[in-house]
Protein backbone atom coordinates (compact mmCIF):
# COMPACT_ATOMS: atom_id res chain seq x y z
CA UNK A 1 0.00 0.00 0.00
CA UNK A 2 1.21 3.53 -0.77
CA UNK A 3 2.13 6.04 1.93
CA UNK A 4 -1.18 7.80 1.34
CA UNK A 5 -3.04 4.54 1.88
CA UNK A 6 -1.12 3.85 5.09
CA UNK A 7 -1.90 7.33 6.39
CA UNK A 8 -5.60 6.84 5.70
CA UNK A 9 -5.53 3.44 7.38
CA UNK A 10 -3.82 4.99 10.42
CA UNK A 11 -6.62 7.56 10.72
CA UNK A 12 -9.20 4.78 10.75
CA UNK A 13 -7.27 2.64 13.23
CA UNK A 14 -6.63 5.60 15.52
CA UNK A 15 -10.38 6.24 15.83
CA UNK A 16 -10.92 2.61 16.84
CA UNK A 17 -8.02 2.83 19.26
CA UNK A 18 -9.33 6.02 20.90
CA UNK A 19 -12.71 4.38 21.46
CA UNK A 20 -11.03 1.48 23.24
CA UNK A 21 -8.92 3.89 25.28
CA UNK A 22 -11.98 5.84 26.42
CA UNK A 23 -13.78 2.66 27.38
CA UNK A 24 -10.70 1.47 29.27
CA UNK A 25 -10.52 4.76 31.18
CA UNK A 26 -14.18 5.25 32.03
CA UNK A 27 -15.80 1.82 31.84
CA UNK A 28 -18.95 3.63 30.71
CA UNK A 29 -19.77 2.08 27.36
CA UNK A 30 -22.92 4.11 26.74
CA UNK A 31 -21.32 7.51 27.31
CA UNK A 32 -18.27 6.60 25.25
CA UNK A 33 -20.48 5.79 22.27
CA UNK A 34 -22.75 8.82 22.72
CA UNK A 35 -19.76 11.16 22.89
CA UNK A 36 -18.28 9.56 19.80
CA UNK A 37 -21.51 9.99 17.84
CA UNK A 38 -21.57 13.69 18.80
CA UNK A 39 -17.98 14.27 17.64
CA UNK A 40 -18.92 15.43 14.14
CA UNK A 41 -15.40 16.51 13.01
CA UNK A 42 -14.02 13.11 13.97
CA UNK A 43 -16.87 11.28 12.22
CA UNK A 44 -16.43 13.30 9.03
CA UNK A 45 -12.68 12.76 8.94
CA UNK A 46 -13.21 9.04 9.50
CA UNK A 47 -15.83 8.84 6.74
CA UNK A 48 -13.65 10.72 4.26
CA UNK A 49 -10.65 8.53 5.06
CA UNK A 50 -12.65 5.30 4.73
CA UNK A 51 -14.11 6.48 1.43
CA UNK A 52 -10.70 7.26 -0.05
CA UNK A 53 -9.15 4.13 1.39
CA UNK A 54 -11.85 1.93 -0.09
CA UNK A 55 -12.20 3.53 -3.52
CA UNK A 56 -8.63 4.67 -4.22
CA UNK A 57 -6.70 1.81 -2.66
CA UNK A 58 -8.65 -1.36 -1.76
CA UNK A 59 -10.84 -1.52 -4.84
CA UNK A 60 -8.07 -0.35 -7.15
CA UNK A 61 -6.05 -3.26 -5.85
CA UNK A 62 -9.12 -5.38 -6.51
CA UNK A 63 -9.00 -4.39 -10.17
CA UNK A 64 -5.46 -5.67 -10.59
CA UNK A 65 -6.03 -8.61 -8.26
CA UNK A 66 -9.77 -9.44 -8.08
CA UNK A 67 -9.19 -12.10 -5.44
CA UNK A 68 -8.46 -9.36 -2.88
CA UNK A 69 -11.76 -7.50 -3.39
CA UNK A 70 -14.35 -7.71 -0.61
CA UNK A 71 -16.96 -6.35 -3.01
CA UNK A 72 -16.22 -9.06 -5.59
CA UNK A 73 -16.38 -11.73 -2.89
CA UNK A 74 -19.74 -10.55 -1.58
CA UNK A 75 -21.31 -10.17 -5.00
CA UNK A 76 -20.08 -13.62 -6.07
CA UNK A 77 -21.70 -15.19 -3.01
CA UNK A 78 -24.98 -13.33 -3.51
CA UNK A 79 -25.16 -14.52 -7.10
CA UNK A 80 -24.64 -18.10 -5.98
CA UNK A 81 -27.12 -18.00 -3.13
CA UNK A 82 -30.01 -16.02 -4.63
CA UNK A 83 -29.68 -16.58 -8.38
CA UNK A 84 -27.73 -19.80 -8.98
CA UNK A 85 -29.42 -22.38 -6.80
CA UNK A 86 -27.60 -21.87 -3.50
CA UNK A 87 -30.76 -21.15 -1.52
CA UNK A 88 -32.46 -24.29 -2.84
CA UNK A 89 -29.42 -26.39 -1.98
CA UNK A 90 -29.37 -25.17 1.60
CA UNK A 91 -33.12 -25.64 1.90
CA UNK A 92 -32.74 -29.28 0.94
CA UNK A 93 -29.93 -29.79 3.42
CA UNK A 94 -31.90 -28.20 6.27
CA UNK A 95 -35.31 -29.61 5.26
CA UNK A 96 -36.71 -26.08 5.35
CA UNK A 97 -40.45 -25.65 4.86
CA UNK A 98 -40.27 -21.87 4.42
CA UNK A 99 -42.34 -20.60 1.50
CA UNK A 100 -40.75 -17.71 -0.36
CA UNK A 101 -42.48 -15.89 -3.24
CA UNK A 102 -41.10 -17.30 -6.50
CA UNK A 103 -40.19 -13.86 -7.79
CA UNK A 104 -37.65 -13.35 -5.04
CA UNK A 105 -35.31 -15.92 -6.51
CA UNK A 106 -35.59 -15.03 -10.19
CA UNK A 107 -37.13 -11.70 -11.13
CA UNK A 108 -37.43 -9.49 -8.07
CA UNK A 109 -34.52 -7.68 -6.52
CA UNK A 110 -32.81 -8.92 -3.41
CA UNK A 111 -33.43 -6.52 -0.52
CA UNK A 112 -30.08 -5.59 1.00
CA UNK A 113 -29.26 -3.58 4.09
CA UNK A 114 -25.66 -2.42 3.78
CA UNK A 115 -24.54 -1.42 7.28
CA UNK A 116 -21.49 0.77 7.62
CA UNK A 117 -21.67 1.34 3.90
CA UNK A 118 -19.80 4.66 3.67
CA UNK A 119 -20.10 4.98 -0.13
CA UNK A 120 -22.79 2.48 -1.27
CA UNK A 121 -20.60 0.10 -3.32
CA UNK A 122 -23.49 -2.30 -4.01
CA UNK A 123 -25.81 0.36 -5.41
CA UNK A 124 -24.57 -0.31 -8.95
CA UNK A 125 -25.95 -3.85 -9.07
CA UNK A 126 -29.39 -3.92 -10.73
CA UNK A 127 -30.30 -7.19 -9.04
CA UNK A 128 -30.09 -5.60 -5.60
CA UNK A 129 -32.45 -3.18 -3.85
CA UNK A 130 -29.96 -1.61 -1.45
CA UNK A 131 -30.54 0.53 1.61
CA UNK A 132 -27.09 1.80 2.57
CA UNK A 133 -26.61 3.24 6.04
CA UNK A 134 -23.66 4.64 7.96
CA UNK A 135 -23.03 6.55 11.16
CA UNK A 136 -21.53 9.33 9.04
CA UNK A 137 -22.12 8.82 5.28
CA UNK A 138 -19.48 9.90 2.78
CA UNK A 139 -22.01 10.24 -0.06
CA UNK A 140 -25.65 11.35 -0.39
CA UNK A 141 -26.65 7.88 -1.61
CA UNK A 142 -25.97 6.61 1.92
CA UNK A 143 -28.40 7.38 4.76
CA UNK A 144 -27.34 8.42 8.23
CA UNK A 145 -28.11 5.81 10.87
CA UNK A 146 -26.66 4.65 14.18
CA UNK A 147 -27.29 0.94 13.67
CA UNK A 148 -26.38 0.13 17.24
CA UNK A 149 -29.30 2.19 18.59
CA UNK A 150 -31.79 2.32 15.70
CA UNK A 151 -35.34 1.33 16.76
CA UNK A 152 -36.89 -1.70 15.05
CA UNK A 153 -40.56 -1.82 14.12
CA UNK A 154 -43.11 -2.82 11.51
CA UNK A 155 -41.93 -0.31 8.91
CA UNK A 156 -38.74 1.37 7.78
CA UNK A 157 -39.00 5.12 8.34
CA UNK A 158 -36.72 7.56 6.51
CA UNK A 159 -36.75 11.31 7.08
CA UNK A 160 -34.63 13.18 4.57
CA UNK A 161 -31.18 11.60 4.72
CA UNK A 162 -31.73 9.88 8.06
CA UNK A 163 -33.20 6.47 8.88
CA UNK A 164 -35.41 6.70 11.96
CA UNK A 165 -36.43 3.03 12.22
CA UNK A 166 -35.95 -0.28 10.41
CA UNK A 167 -38.56 -2.96 9.68
CA UNK A 168 -38.07 -6.45 11.06
CA UNK A 169 -38.24 -9.52 8.80
CA UNK A 170 -37.75 -7.36 5.72
CA UNK A 171 -34.30 -7.99 4.27
CA UNK A 172 -32.94 -10.94 2.33
CA UNK A 173 -29.39 -9.91 2.99
CA UNK A 174 -27.72 -7.74 5.56
CA UNK A 175 -24.46 -6.88 4.78
CA UNK A 176 -25.84 -8.01 6.72
CA UNK A 177 -28.43 -8.38 3.28
CA UNK A 178 -27.23 -7.61 5.86
CA UNK A 179 -23.74 -6.66 5.00
CA UNK A 180 -21.39 -5.78 7.86
CA UNK A 181 -18.42 -4.49 5.94
CA UNK A 182 -15.61 -3.79 8.44
CA UNK A 183 -18.30 -2.81 10.95
CA UNK A 184 -17.92 -4.98 14.03
CA UNK A 185 -14.32 -4.08 14.82
CA UNK A 186 -15.40 -0.40 14.89
CA UNK A 187 -17.06 -1.00 18.26
CA UNK A 188 -14.88 -1.07 21.38
CA UNK A 189 -16.94 -3.74 23.16
CA UNK A 190 -17.96 -7.36 22.38
CA UNK A 191 -21.44 -6.60 23.72
CA UNK A 192 -21.96 -3.94 21.03
CA UNK A 193 -20.93 -6.37 18.30
CA UNK A 194 -23.34 -8.96 19.73
CA UNK A 195 -26.16 -6.40 19.80
CA UNK A 196 -25.60 -5.60 16.11
CA UNK A 197 -25.74 -9.28 15.17
CA UNK A 198 -28.91 -9.82 17.21
CA UNK A 199 -30.45 -6.85 15.46
CA UNK A 200 -29.46 -8.26 12.07
CA UNK A 201 -31.22 -11.52 12.93
CA UNK A 202 -34.44 -9.63 13.68
CA UNK A 203 -34.24 -7.63 10.44
CA UNK A 204 -33.63 -10.60 8.16
CA UNK A 205 -36.23 -12.83 6.61
CA UNK A 206 -35.81 -16.47 7.50
CA UNK A 207 -33.13 -17.98 5.23
CA UNK A 208 -31.75 -14.50 4.68
CA UNK A 209 -28.00 -13.92 4.75
CA UNK A 210 -25.70 -11.99 7.03
CA UNK A 211 -22.37 -11.10 5.45
CA UNK A 212 -19.54 -10.22 7.83
CA UNK A 213 -16.20 -9.00 6.54
CA UNK A 214 -13.55 -8.18 9.09
CA UNK A 215 -9.96 -7.08 8.44
CA UNK A 216 -6.96 -9.31 9.16
CA UNK A 217 -3.70 -9.36 7.24
CA UNK A 218 -2.25 -12.30 9.15
CA UNK A 219 -2.20 -15.89 7.90
CA UNK A 220 -5.54 -17.69 7.79
CA UNK A 221 -4.91 -19.75 10.95
CA UNK A 222 -3.54 -16.88 13.08
CA UNK A 223 -6.92 -15.72 14.39
CA UNK A 224 -8.93 -18.87 13.76
CA UNK A 225 -9.72 -18.96 17.49
CA UNK A 226 -11.51 -15.62 17.13
CA UNK A 227 -13.47 -16.74 14.08
CA UNK A 228 -14.52 -19.94 15.84
CA UNK A 229 -15.71 -17.92 18.83
CA UNK A 230 -17.80 -15.66 16.58
CA UNK A 231 -19.31 -18.68 14.87
CA UNK A 232 -20.36 -20.14 18.24
CA UNK A 233 -21.94 -16.86 19.35
CA UNK A 234 -23.84 -16.36 16.10
CA UNK A 235 -25.05 -19.94 16.15
CA UNK A 236 -26.76 -19.23 19.48
CA UNK A 237 -28.57 -16.28 17.90
CA UNK A 238 -29.84 -18.48 15.07
CA UNK A 239 -27.21 -18.07 12.34
CA UNK A 240 -25.41 -20.92 10.58
CA UNK A 241 -22.15 -20.15 8.85
CA UNK A 242 -22.33 -21.49 5.30
CA UNK A 243 -19.27 -19.89 3.75
CA UNK A 244 -15.88 -18.77 5.01
CA UNK A 245 -12.86 -17.55 3.11
CA UNK A 246 -9.69 -15.79 4.15
CA UNK A 247 -8.67 -13.15 1.64
CA UNK A 248 -5.27 -11.50 1.77
CA UNK A 249 -6.42 -8.81 4.19
CA UNK A 250 -9.82 -9.95 5.49
CA UNK A 251 -12.00 -12.76 6.79
CA UNK A 252 -15.18 -13.09 4.69
CA UNK A 253 -18.14 -14.97 6.15
CA UNK A 254 -21.73 -15.67 5.16
CA UNK A 255 -24.27 -16.72 7.80
CA UNK A 256 -27.76 -18.04 7.03
CA UNK A 257 -30.70 -17.24 9.30
CA UNK A 258 -32.01 -20.72 10.03
CA UNK A 259 -34.32 -20.17 12.99
CA UNK A 260 -36.78 -17.79 14.56
CA UNK A 261 -35.60 -15.57 17.40
CA UNK A 262 -34.16 -17.56 20.28
CA UNK A 263 -34.95 -16.79 23.92
CA UNK A 264 -31.79 -16.60 26.00
CA UNK A 265 -31.31 -16.06 29.72
CA UNK A 266 -29.48 -12.90 30.76
CA UNK A 267 -26.45 -14.84 31.97
CA UNK A 268 -26.32 -16.82 28.73
CA UNK A 269 -26.51 -13.64 26.66
CA UNK A 270 -23.64 -12.12 28.63
CA UNK A 271 -21.45 -15.18 28.08
CA UNK A 272 -22.26 -15.39 24.38
CA UNK A 273 -21.73 -11.66 23.88
CA UNK A 274 -18.22 -12.03 25.31
CA UNK A 275 -17.43 -14.41 22.46
CA UNK A 276 -17.65 -11.54 19.97
CA UNK A 277 -14.18 -10.35 20.90
CA UNK A 278 -11.32 -9.17 18.73
CA UNK A 279 -7.62 -9.43 19.68
CA UNK A 280 -7.39 -5.68 20.38
CA UNK A 281 -9.90 -6.05 23.23
CA UNK A 282 -7.14 -7.61 25.36
CA UNK A 283 -4.43 -5.00 24.83
CA UNK A 284 -3.68 -2.21 27.23
CA UNK A 285 -4.93 0.70 25.10
CA UNK A 286 -2.04 2.90 26.25
CA UNK A 287 0.41 0.60 24.48
CA UNK A 288 -0.63 1.02 20.86
CA UNK A 289 2.40 -0.81 19.48
CA UNK A 290 1.18 -4.11 20.88
CA UNK A 291 -1.87 -3.92 18.64
CA UNK A 292 0.39 -4.17 15.60
CA UNK A 293 2.80 -6.81 16.91
CA UNK A 294 1.02 -9.21 19.22
CA UNK A 295 -1.39 -11.96 18.35
CA UNK A 296 -3.42 -14.53 20.22
CA UNK A 297 -1.41 -17.60 21.25
CA UNK A 298 -2.62 -21.12 20.46
CA UNK A 299 -2.04 -24.64 21.60
CA UNK A 300 -0.92 -27.14 18.97
CA UNK A 301 -4.45 -28.60 18.85
CA UNK A 302 -6.00 -25.15 18.29
CA UNK A 303 -3.46 -24.37 15.59
CA UNK A 304 -4.24 -27.64 13.82
CA UNK A 305 -7.96 -26.91 14.02
CA UNK A 306 -7.32 -23.53 12.46
CA UNK A 307 -6.42 -25.15 9.19
CA UNK A 308 -9.93 -26.57 8.98
CA UNK A 309 -11.08 -22.95 8.60
CA UNK A 310 -9.26 -22.47 5.30
CA UNK A 311 -11.45 -21.61 2.28
CA UNK A 312 -14.49 -23.84 2.03
CA UNK A 313 -17.91 -23.53 0.55
CA UNK A 314 -20.15 -25.54 2.79
CA UNK A 315 -19.89 -26.63 6.37
Structure description:
This protein is of the alpha/beta class and 315 residues long. It has helices at residues 3-26, 29-38, 40-64, 70-83, 86-94, 102-106, 190-203, 224-237, 266-274, 289-293, 300-306; strands at residues 110-115, 128-134, 143-144, 152-153, 157-159, 162-167, 171-175, 178-181, 204-215, 239-246, 250-257. The strands form two sheets. Strands 1, 2, 3, 7, 8, 9, 10 and 11 form an eight-stranded mixed β-sheet that branches. Helix 7 (190-203) links the parallel strand 8 (178-181) and strand 9 (204-215). The two termini are 34 Å apart. Residues 288-315 have low confidence and may be disordered.
Q: Work out the helix count.
A: 11
User: Looking at the chains present, what oligomeric state does this protein adopt?
Assistant: single chain
> What share of the residues lie within helices?
40-55%
Gyration radius, rounded: 19 Å
Low-confidence stretches: 288-315
Largest beta-sheet details: 8 strands, mixed
List the secondary-structure elements in sequence, H or E.
HHHHHHEEEEEEEEHEHEEHHH
Residue fraction in strands: 15-25%
The shape is globular
> First CA to last CA: what distance?
34 Å
What's the mean pLDDT score? Answer: 81
Please count the beta strands (DSSP E, at least 2 residues each): 11
What structural category characterises the helix and strand content? alpha/beta
Amino acid sequence: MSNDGKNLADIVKNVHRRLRQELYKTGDLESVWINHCRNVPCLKKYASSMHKLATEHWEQLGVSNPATSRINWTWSFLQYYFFSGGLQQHRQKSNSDTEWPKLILNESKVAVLDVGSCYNPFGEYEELDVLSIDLCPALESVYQCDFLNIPLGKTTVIDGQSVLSLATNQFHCIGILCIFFLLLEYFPSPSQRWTCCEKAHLLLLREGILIIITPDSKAAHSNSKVMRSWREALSAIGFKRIKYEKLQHAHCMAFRKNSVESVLKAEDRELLASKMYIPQDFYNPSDSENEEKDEIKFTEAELAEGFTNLPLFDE
